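debug: dumping io for the single-chain case to check the tokenizer round-trip. Nothing else runs in this session.
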Amino acid sequence: MTLKPGNNHPETADFGWYWVFLRIILEQIMPKMKTNRGAAKRFRKNASGGYKRGKSFRRHILTKKSTKRKRHLREPSQVAKCDSRMVSRMLPYV
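debug: decoded output
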């Protein structure tokens, strides 16, 4: 494949039609799955295959909560086994 002078992009070179055609065919056969961006910001995958999440009730109205309660809310939690399938569907590439 030779590139035209001043144009180094393979799609617009001599076989540009081939790459465009291949991209169209692949997109028709295998559509890309979208990641749920809200879930991507809230969950991380563990080494064991599960998902970890942050705990709730730690954003505001903290004065009435004890120090021990706030300290325990800092630690991440494990997503429940029944919910992990739903999370994995929202995060297909994680």
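debug: round-trip ok. The helical segments are 16-29, 37-42, 67-74, 81-90.
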